[in-house]
Write a structure and sequence with these properties.
heterodimer, A: 561 residues, alpha/beta, six-stranded mixed beta sheet, six-stranded parallel beta sheet, rod-shaped, B: 412 residues, 13 helices
Chain lengths: 561, 412
């Protein structure tokens, strides 16, 4: 036995779709067997009758009246259902629905046309395609995905570099731009230390230490773990250094990486020197060639890198006056180092081995190539003229300049030579006036050929030779004079440290200074994280293209070209 | 010409097409290739054996209407003897809602795209209840059809002939600003249509007939659907045949199969089994009563309105599960798979952004997003009529097949 109840609402406008919805809602209620909601026209009454929903007897309702009918298991269920009609017909005050989540980069950019970044964390198989699409649309890329082929990485970075866009990654876990962390990043104070890193946790460790030491971070640019491999050639690293060089908010740069390919070291260090800002270098597991080379500081560990950077970022830091000459134009020709001091020669050799190639020496050791004969230099050469082979039957060059003067003339006459590096060691026991003999030789050599002379003078103002007059004499002969080896070597590196690779089209420095606006493709948590940090971000509900079907993917790929 | 250039050309042509209602005439007089014994139907080609209930019913009704058979049995026998030819409306520049059945004697709207000169045709809308387009062929159904043909048709023909041009594109653009999306909801458009025609109908017909005709047009919130479909067909055809283009120029269903055509792929259809729409049902009906998707009315989505303009029609958001935001999101999703924002059809709720126009099969396949179609739902048995309305998506297979055919044709 079932109960049939009706409700008539005279007058009013109800769209047919509203009535369908009302009927469906009523039919869904517990205890309801069937329901009808129609304007009570004869046609509609006939429809109700056909479904056994028309009560017997007269019904005061016309075509302009809403007729609601329910058939229920019990009277109570029928009454309850009819009491809910209003709730279905009149709504409002409820939720207004979620915002649209775009499915493609193209439509995401219509929502956030100012985006400069694409954060890509799709499965590796598809990541290069997504990154390429992002570059095509003028975005810079933070590519978190791994399992991107080396070939794809090189292609992406070539494309990015050519168009003045950054490609951070693949396999880049950490970056921080203008105070906004991408991927995994610590919350750190804003400050003047900028980082470039081929190591995500390295960047995290250093930025966290910097914060702990009271310093602050401007930006951290990730490059991905393979950026410093030979094939990639440090493309992103170089772009990052160049960006930080031009960034007004960055005063000290930290460069951190797993050990780079030896062929790439020179390129990066050259680029680091080219920033004109102090750069703290930490290549994990790579023997530091010196504690300091001009404005390059080599750290032994992550926390030390942070510490040096924080010290350098203090307004009192001594480094603020550049110890170099500021001359950074590349000098053609080779370096010839003519040392009286063995240790100075060894240290120079060690330091310069990362910059000059090929570098020869008469010093036996881990770095440098041997000479065919010690009587003749080859390419870049560092000579310890105090070594046994030179002092047989002759006084040590600390006290006798004869050999050095002859060698100086020999090197200066060599058309392949661009720079001659000398040490001048003062003090008791040393030659009473080394500059008095070296300066005229330098003058004479420079009159014959345009050779740059760099002299590092080791002495004090209490030494018997009179430090000031020694410096003066050398300067007067046209030599560049330094009073510490590190600064002198820094200058050498500036002038000769490998040929500059073709300059990359600059990435607009606005990328660092404008508020971060990004499209996130892949892990939704990255999007949430950016949002929490106050960045503008639009998440893309990305799905594998063509459902991952290889045949269709191949066609789509070809159609794109 | 590259693909993007070809697609731009195709969609530009679709959007610059300007369909005007030029007249009302008898099918055999105006539809190219129309002849006695030929029955046009909705969707891609199909043979009698595979036709669904509503389409079969409509075919029988048309044979009765044409006087080619006296009853159902004769009509079926005629078909079985092979004396009836079938062809998709689309093969004759024609479109029809639901069964879409159009025969030689029927009155049709004549629409011309005055920009490119192509014509399109559509039958007259019969209103609700038991109607031919849902497969009904009872005497009262045929009687109404005859009245439409013999009384309303000539009145409309004369009214249209004597008035200034009736710009269907402009009418649609206005209706979109009045809460229509042009496929399931044509309330505003139908009233605009009525308003435009009323003075001329009143002028050319006597008061009794004028009153009947105007009441018939005014009572039917789908009056304008058929000329709108013809207008969309004229716009879509303007985009067809652009070498190298991957833009869809027809989507249509015959109640058994869903088919599409692509601008750069000639006259081939790419088909797969039609699905049952997901929707709401009139009192007394349920999904168990529903026929598979049917009708040429998907030409509206093909031309950038209908489900694609859902954001313009918040009153029918229930189709898309509830809130006005869902309606907006439906349209937003269609931007993912289309080439352009329409230059004529705009959506107030989206800051007057143009509707998503020109479905690109590449985007459909790549993103896995099929077009959203608003549709009526037919009863699976001939003659019962409409049982509900809802949403349907074409099977992905048709887009994949088209993409593969494209690759083969263009040697990709």
């Amino acid at each position: 036995m079932s109960a049939l109840k009706t409700q008539v609402r005279p007058g009013g406008y109800y769209d047919s779709i509203v009535l369908m919805q009302l009927q469906a809602a009523l039919a869904d209620l517990p205890g309801i067997l069937d329901a009808g909601a129609v304007m009570a026209s004869p046609e509609n009454r006939a429809l109700l009758a056909a479904s056994d929903l028309l009560p017997e007897g007269a019904l005061e309702a016309g075509p302009a009246d809403l007729l609601v009918v329910v058939r229920a298991e019990t009277d109570a269920a029928a009454s309850d259902a009819l009491s809910r009609v209003d709730a279905v017909l009149v709504r409002g005050g409820g939720e207004t629905g979620d915002d649209y989540v775009p499915r493609s980069l193209e439509s995401a950019l219509k929502i956030i046309p100012a985006a400069q970044w694409a954060l890509v964390s799709t499965p590796g198989r598809f990541a290069a395609g997504v990154a390429r699409d992002a570059l095509d649309r003028g975005l810079n890329v933070f590519l978190y995905s791994d399992n991107v082929t080396l070939e794809d990485e090189v292609a992406l970075k070539d494309k990015g570099a050519a168009e003045g866009r950054l490609v951070m990654g693949p396999d880049c876990g950490t970056a921080s731009i203008n105070g906004i962390g991408f991927g995994f990043a610590n919350r750190v104070r804003s400050g003047s230390i900028g980082l470039v890193g081929a190591s995500g946790t390295g960047l995290q460790a250093i930025t966290a230490h910097v914060h702990g030491l009271g310093g602050g971070v401007s930006h951290a640019i990730g490059t991905g773990g393979r950026d410093l491999d030979t094939e990639v050639g440090a493309m992103t690293c170089r772009q990052g250094l160049d960006l930080l060089a031009r960034d007004p908010g960055t005063e000290v740069i930290v460069l951190v990486s797993k050990p780079p390919a030896p062929s790439v070291v020179r390129t990066i260090l050259r680029a680091a020197r080219g920033t004109g800002k102090p750069v703290v270098v930490h290549f994990v597991g790579f023997p530091a060639p010196a504690r300091r080379l001009g404005r390059l500081y080599f750290a032994e560990g992550l926390s030390e890198a942070a510490w040096i950077a924080v010290e350098l970022s203090k307004p009192t830091a001594a480094d603020r006056e550049d110890s170099g000459t500021g001359e950074s134009e590349i000098l053609p020709g080779y370096l010839r180092g003519l040392f009286a001091g063995g240790t100075l020669a060894s240290e120079s050799l060690l330091a310069l081995a990362n910059f000059l190639d090929p570098l020869h020496s008469n010093i036996m050791g881990a770095v440098g190539r041997p000479l065919e004969t010690v009587a003749r230099s080859e390419a870049h050469t560092i000579l310890d003229l105090g070594a046994d082979e030179y002092t047989v039957g002759r006084l040590h060059p600390m006290i006798d300049n004869d050999l050095r003067l002859r060698r100086l003339a020999q090197e200066a006459a060599d058309p392949e030579v661009g720079m001659i590096l000398l040490d001048v060691v003062l003090g008791d026991g040393a030659h009473p006036d080394p500059a008095g003999e070296l300066a005229p030789a330098i003058s004479e050599a420079r009159r014959a050929r345009d050779v740059e002379f760099v002299a590092v003078v080791i002495g004090t103002d209490e030494d018997p030779q009179n430090l000031e007059s020694q410096l003066e004499a050398l300067r007067g002969a046209g030599a560049l004079v330094f009073e510490d080896l590190s600064s002198a070597l820094g200058h050498v590196v500036d002038r000769l440290g490998g040929s500059e690779p073709a300059p990359l089209p600059p990435v607009d420095v606005d990328l660092l200074t404008a508020p971060v606006a990004a499209v996130n493709i892949g892990l939704e948590s990255f999007s949430t994280s950016l949002e929490d940090q106050g960045a503008e971000v639009v998440h893309v509900d990305w799905q594998p293209p063509a459902g991952g079907d290889d045949r269709l993917l191949a066609i789509l790929d070809k159609l794109r070209r | 010409m590259g693909i993007s250039e070809a697609n731009k050309t195709a969609v530009d042509q679709m959007m610059t097409a300007r369909p005007l209602l030029k007249g009302v005439a008898t099918a055999r007089d105006v539809i190219p290739g129309m002849r006695d014994g030929l029955i046009l139907h909705a969707g891609p080609p199909i043979e009698w054996e595979r036709m669904s209930g509503p389409l079969r019913g409509a075919v029988i009704g048309a044979l009765l209407f044409e006087g080619l058979a006296a009853d159902e049995a004769e009509a079926v026998a005629l078909v079985d003897r092979g004396d009836v030819e079938f062809a998709p409306c689309h093969h004759h520049q024609t479109v029809g809602p639901m069964a879409g059945v159009t025969s030689a004697s029927m009155a049709v709207y004549v629409v011309e795209n005055v920009t490119h000169g192509n014509m399109a045709f559509s039958n007259l809308n019969e209103g609700y209840g038991k109607v031919l387009r849902y497969g009904a062929y009872a005497p009262d159904v045929l009687q109404k059809l005859r009245w439409m043909n013999d009384v309303m048709g000539p009145v409309l023909a004369e009214a249209v002939a004597t008035r200034d041009e009736l710009d269907l594109r402009a009418l649609l653009a206005e209706a979109l600003h009045m809460g229509d999306e042009g496929h399931n909801r044509n309330k505003a458009g139908s009233l605009l249509f009525l308003k435009l025609l009323a003075p001329d109908v009143a002028r050319v017909a006597g008061p009794e007939v004028a009153s009947e005709v105007l009441k018939f047009l005014g009572d039917n919130a789908l009056s304008v659907l058929n000329p709108v479909m013809a207008a969309c067909k004229a716009m879509a055809d303007a985009a067809h045949g652009v070498e190298g283009s991957t833009i869809v120029t027809a989507m249509a269903r015959n109640g058994t199969d869903f088919g599409i055509r692509v601008s750069g792929l000639g006259d081939d259809w790419f088909t797969a089994p039609a699905q049952v729409p997901d929707g709401l049902y009139f009192s007394g009906f349920s999904a168990a009563d529903a026929n598979a998707d049917i009708g040429d009315s998907t030409i509206t989505e093909t031309a950038g309105i209908g489900g694609f303009a859902m954001a313009a029609a918040p009153a029918i958001v229930t189709f898309v599960s509830g809130t006005p935001k869902d309606a907006v999101n439906t349209t937003m999703e269609m931007y993912e798979i289309t080439q352009a924002d329409h230059l004529q059809f705009t959506i107030p709720a989206l800051d007057f952004r143009g509707t998503p126009t020109g479905i690109d099969i590449r985007k459909v396949v790549e993103l896995g997003i099929t077009p959203r179609i608003n549709t009526g739902i037919a009863h699976k048995d001939a003659g019962v009529g409409q049982v509900g309305a809802g949403l349907v998506r074409p099977p992905m297979d048709v887009f994949e097949a088209a993409l593969i055919a494209y690759a083969e044709r263009y040697g990709v």
